[in-house]
Design goal:
The complex is a heterodimer of chains A (112) and B (114). Chain A has 112 residues and is mostly beta strands. In chain A, 0% of the residues lie in helices and 57% in strands. The chains are: A mainly beta (112), B mainly beta (114).
Chain lengths: 112, 114
C-alpha cells in the first residue's frame, strides 16, 4: 500500500527561488525520510526526521513534520539547477518490521 | 562509504525466462529490500529480508521470489518473466537494530521483458 503521497507531482521554478514539496501519510510512523533521485539513478538519502521532532535543517534543506496531520514538507532554499531531480518521502511505520514505504515522488525542475 | 551494488544497469530478457537480479552490500547491514519503480507509482516494495535465510513479502510479491543465503547478498528472482515486469528495480539496505537510520540504494537495474 502506498503510505506517502507527495504534492505536487511536478514543480518547475526559477533558479534562486525556494521549492516546497509536501508529503502526507496514513499510519503512525517511527520516522519520515526524504530522498533524491537523479534521472535513471538510485536514490540518495537527504534527511531523516523522527516522529518526536517537528523541524530539522540540513544546509539548504528544511523539513517539517506534523504527526497530528500526518504530513511533512521539504523546503529547498535558493534553488540551483543541480537541484533538478525527483524527490521522494518515505515512512517507517511503527507497526511491523523495519521498512520504508515510499510515495510517488515530486519531479522538481529548476530553470536557469 | 556504504556501497550497494546491483549486478546490471540494463537487462533485456524474453517472456518466460527465469531472471536473476543480484544485489550486494558491503556494510554488514541486516536489512535488505527490493523495490520496483514505475512512472506515476513511485517505489513499491516487492520483498525484504531482515536476516540470512529470512524473507518477508512486501506489497507486490506476486511473480517474484527472493534468496538470501549470505548476509551481503539479496537476490530477486522472476520465475517466468512477463512484459508487465518491465520496470526499474532498486535494491536497498538498512542497518538493523537501529530504527531511525537511513537506507542506501543501488544504482538500479532497468529490466525490459520482450
Amino acid at each position: 500500500s502506498q503510505q506517502g503521497e507527495e504534492d505536487p507531482q511536478a514543480l518547475s521554478i526559477q533558479e534562486g527561488e525556494n521549492a516546497t514539496m509536501n508529503c502526507s501519510y496514513k499510519t503512525s510512523i517511527n520516522n519520515l525520510q526524504w530522498y533524491r533521485q537523479n534521472s535513471g539513478r538510485g536514490l540518495v538519502h537527504l534527511i531523516l526526521i523522527r516522529s518526536n521532532e517537528r523541524e530539522k535543517h540540513s544546509g539548504r534543506l528544511r523539513v517539517t513534520l506534523d504527526t497530528s496531520k500526518k504530513s511533512s514538507s521539504l523546503l529547498i532554499t535558493a534553488s540551483r539547477a543541480a537541484d533538478t531531480a525527483s524527490y521522494f518521502c518515505a515512512t517507517d511505520p511503527i507497526q511491523g518490521a523495519q521498512k520504508l514505504v515510499f510515495g510517488q515522488g515530486t519531479r522538481l525542475t529548476i530553470n536557469p | 562509504d556504504v556501497k550497494v551494488t546491483q549486478s546490471s544497469r540494463y537487462l533485456v530478457k524474453r517472456t518466460g525466462e527465469k531472471v536473476f537480479l543480484e544485489c550486494v552490500q558491503d556494510m554488514d547491514h541486516e536489512n535488505m529490500f527490493w523495490y520496483r519503480q514505475d512512472p506515476g507509482l513511485g517505489l513499491r516494495l516487492i520483498y525484504f529480508s531482515y536476516d540470512v535465510k529470512m524473507k518477508e513479502k512486501g506489497d507486490i510479491p506476486e511473480g517474484y521470489s527472493v534468496s538470501r543465503e549470505k548476509k551481503e547478498r539479496f537476490s530477486l528472482i522472476l520465475e517466468s518473466a512477463s512484459t508487465n515486469q518491465t520496470s526499474m528495480y532498486l535494491c536497498a539496505s538498512i542497518r538493523g537494530g537501529l530504527r531511525n537510520t537511513e537506507a542506501f540504494f543501488g544504482q538500479g537495474t532497468r529490466l525490459t521483458v520482450v
